[in-house]
Amino acid sequence: MNLVPTNDRLGVGNRCYSDNQINKAVHLNTVDLTKITNPYIRIAIHLQRYLGLRREESIKFKPWQADKGDHIELQASWCKGGRSRTVPVLSVEARYWLDEAKKLVKNIDQSLISESKTYIQQRYLYDKQTRLAGIKHAHGLRHAYAQERYKILTGWDCPKCGGPTSRMLNKEQKTLDCSVRLIISQALGHGRESVTVNYLGR
């Protein structure tokens, strides 16, 4: 006897991870960055875009502690689920904004929270300024990061950017696709390749 009711019985549809036609990526050249007047927030959103950080991670980010040259180390207390991780610094843009963060934050123990604010106050200001700039869902900055990295590592666009779907890939391409998705999943702080479908499509 099954004590747990089925999805059908509860009226819950099967989970749908992605639609290749819907791309939630946010590109910074399409928003009004002049609306983001807080320098800590300006740097935080660029770290989201070029290093794939979550909102909370980018606000709590301590640049002097995290920057290890060719990679960053994210402290567990900054990350979702308390899972620390490392992310490689691969682009000129990522290096530029890390250096800008260290120029702004003089105290090596300080995060990207304005000295006069608490985390909650900074997050509220972050949400307000990103909305004013036209960023409805800042998580889309991570989508843009994942999609760019996928193209660099595979040589072709992901399905959400008009690239080939899984069915169109040959055996060697599918092997590369799988390994690249695992790399991106780990950089984003996920442990499963399947999560990348939300970012890249299938």
Describe this structure in words.
The chain has 202 residues and is mainly α. The protein has helices at 7-10, 39-51, 55-60, 63-66, 92-104, 119-132, 140-154, 171-188, 196-200, and strands spanning 71-74, 85-88. It has a two-stranded antiparallel ribbon with strand order 1-2. Helix 2 (39-51) packs antiparallel against helix 5 and helix 7 (140-154) packs antiparallel against helix 8. It is globular, with a radius of gyration of 19 Å.
SSE map:
Elements: H1 7-10, H2 39-51, H3 55-60, H4 63-66, E1 71-74, E2 85-88, H5 92-104, H6 119-132, H7 140-154, H8 171-188, H9 196-200
Antiparallel strand pairs: 1-2
Strand tally: 2
Mean pLDDT: 93
Q: What is the radius of gyration? A: 19 Å
Order of helices and strands: HHHHEEHHHHH
What global shape is seen? globular
State the end-to-end distance.
Answer: 36 Å
Summed up, the helix count is 9
Approximately what portion of the residues adopt beta-strand conformation? under 5%
Which stretches are poorly predicted, pLDDT < 50 over at least 5 residues? 12-16
